[in-house]
Amino acid sequence: MAQLIKLxxxxxxxxxxxxxxxSQFIRLKKQQWDKxxxxxxxxxxxxxxKVSQASDFKVEDGNEKRSFLTRFKTKRLKVAEETSDQxxxxxxxxxxxxxxxxxxxxIPKTIDDLKHLFLDYIFRFQIRWASSTLREKSSxxxxxxxxxxxxxxxxxxxxxxxLLYRPVFKLKNAPVxxxxxxxxxxxxxxxxxxxxxxxxxxxxxxxxxWVARRGDHEKKLLNPVLSLxxxxxxxxxxxxxxxxxxxxxxxxISRNGYIDYPFAPYDITILDKRTFDDWFQRLRNASAxxxxxxxxxxxxxxxHGLTTSYYRSEWNEESNE
Length: 321
What we know:
Strand content: 15-25%
Distance between the termini: 41 Å
Shape: globular
Oligomer: single chain
Number of strands: 14
Radius of gyration: 22 Å
Strand order of the largest sheet: 1-3-6-7-11-13
Low-confidence stretches: 52-93
Mean pLDDT: 83
Number of helices: 9
C-alpha cells in the first residue's frame, strides 16, 4: 500500500519525522496482518472483532475509569513517541490508540475475503494515521473515506511509494492547493485527473477550457494544464532548492475516458484508457526499498505543508491540571 504522507491541509505525523514513520507504518501493517490472519486460521476471529463498549466499563464509575485510562494511555504514548524507532513500544502504542482502531465487524469466509476486509481496514487506518499525531488531529471530512481515487492509489501501490493527496502548501504566506504528488524511488510524479462518465472524450487545447463529449452531450471543463503546471512548478522549485537530483514528471490522466490533445506541451505526459493501465502496472511491479532521496524529497515538500488541526482533548486536560 502506498503511504499517505499528506492529505489536504490535515496534520501529518510524517511532517514531524519522515525518516521514522514510513518504516514504522510498514511494521504496523505487517503486525496487524499477522494478528488477523492468525486469528482467522485458528478460528478465533471473534478476538479481533468489534465488541460492545459497555463491556469495557461499568456504568456507575465509567467516567472515572475512562479518565484514568486516558491519562495512562497518554503517558504511554508520550514515552513511546520519544523512544527510538527500534523500540516495540513505538508501534504498540500506536496500535492501542483508540483513534486508530477499526475493529472488524464480519467474519470472512475465505482468505480472499479476509484480504479485502484487511485492505479496507488499513485504508481507514491510513487516513487516521495520516491526519493525526500524538498531540494533534484534524477533522477528517467523511467523504475522504469514500474517495475512490484516493483508495485506488493507496490500496494498489507498494509500500515504497509516498503519496501527497491534493496537499495545501504555504508559500510566501499564501495557501496554494496542489494536485496529486507521488514520490517514487527514482521520480516524482505530479498528476491531474480528469474523469467523467465512461467513454468520455476530452479535447485538449491551449484555451482556458477543454471540451468533454459523450454521445450528444457536451460540457466544458477548466483546462487541467493550469493546475498541473502550478503543481509541477512548485514541486520542481522545492526539489531544486533542496539540491536533489530526482526528476519531476507531469501527467494528465483519464482512467475511463480518452484524451485528444495533439499539441500537448512536451513536458506533459497524457495517459487515458488506452495507456493508463500499462503505465500503472509498471508502477505496481516496481520492487525497491525506500530510498534516502525519497525521504529527503518528502521532507522538503512536507516542510511547506499548511496544517489545520486542534489539540487532542487529553492534552488540553493535562495542560489545565
